[in-house]
Amino acid sequence: MPIFPYFYQKFTSMNINGKHYHTIWLKKNDPKTIQIIDQRLLPFEFKTQDLKTIQDAYTAIKEMWVRGAPLIGVAAAYGMYLGFLGLNDSENLNQEIKDLGLFLESSRPTAVNLKFAIDLVLEKTNAGKSLSDKIQIALETANQLKLDEIENCRLIGENGFPLIEKISKAKKGDTVNILTHCNAGWLACVDYGTATAPIYLAHEKGIKIHVWVDETRPRNQGARLTAFEMDQQGIPHTVIADNTGGLLMQKGMVDMVIVGSDRTSSNGDVANKIGTYLKALAAHDNKIPFYAALPLSTIDWNMNDGINEIPIEQRDEDEVKYVEGWNNNQITKVRVMPENSPVLNYGFDVTPAKYVSAIITENGVCNANKEDIENLKK
Ligand code: MRU
User: Fold this and answer.
1) Quick check: CB of 108 below 6 Å from ligand 1?
2) pLDDT in tens, 53-88
3) Among 18, 42, 50, 57, which residue carries the largest CB count within 10 Å?
4) Domains of the chain
């Protein structure tokens, strides 16, 4: 029985092997355990993980069992709830609560949804008089954030759909070719995705689409997760090596680019998975629209210069040194470079606002500039 039947009347549910899933949920009959889909194993294996402590939530975010900005936010809110469950009423309660937030915030630096969610839980739980009140408020806040992010993605789909429809009409119903980078699909959120939400809706409404999926080295979120989603949802798609997009754009094989974002500054600079900036440059050179789809929880309202201020995560060199794949019925790692060569592994880059054709949010589509972004709040 779907939890939100009214969504499904107008929007396909996100399925794995025909069964509807969210990326995170409270365990049935065990409200002290959070369950997640372990994204390290997809598309090869489907397993869930139980999170029982704030340390579990920290590990799940840091080691990318869950990933993608909106999902990181929701996982952090539930992580705070688990943290509250682990506290004892003491004189230092306020300090201990602050420490929970600082600890979880240190898991990953770039996606601002992490801080947004932690601050939200801290603010709401402040009203609780006793520890048990605070625990209850933390759970309610996490549950509500999860529902909000589902609805945000659904609305991003509704708001982004006309952009695809317009190109389809201009092409007289011929296939609209959309390029996307990394995974900004439902696996990066709770349901529907950000960049993928307009794509899923267009497909559902019978518009002919085809998605170019950047493989997204080093962790291959495109090849592993976006391609998995597209396959599961029956969307025509093709995986391409990261360096292919520019050529396809020159050849007229890309009609639009839609990506997600991990943090967008208030002036419209868009941080997203490393490699996004190069796609934006190529799109600009070829006069192809480049859209960033994101909920308002991804906007850093206090930051005016994303290029210089957004913290860029650097990850372990092994992510570049080794490639993971499926061999002999198990996930296997192979080294793809000399053992002793140094590696630099930046996780994200920032696309300057001037290369972003528009931002697609739950509150509407706007130009990537401070004034128009500010107006989204209203
Ligand atoms: O390192 P990841 O996998 O967490 O990075 C995810 C991305 O860069 C996504 O494109 C972005 O979070 C948008 S998610 C809807």
Assistant:
1) no
2) 999 999 999 999 999 999 999 999 999 999 999 999
3) 57
4) 6-148 (1.20.120.420), 159-374 (3.40.50.10470)
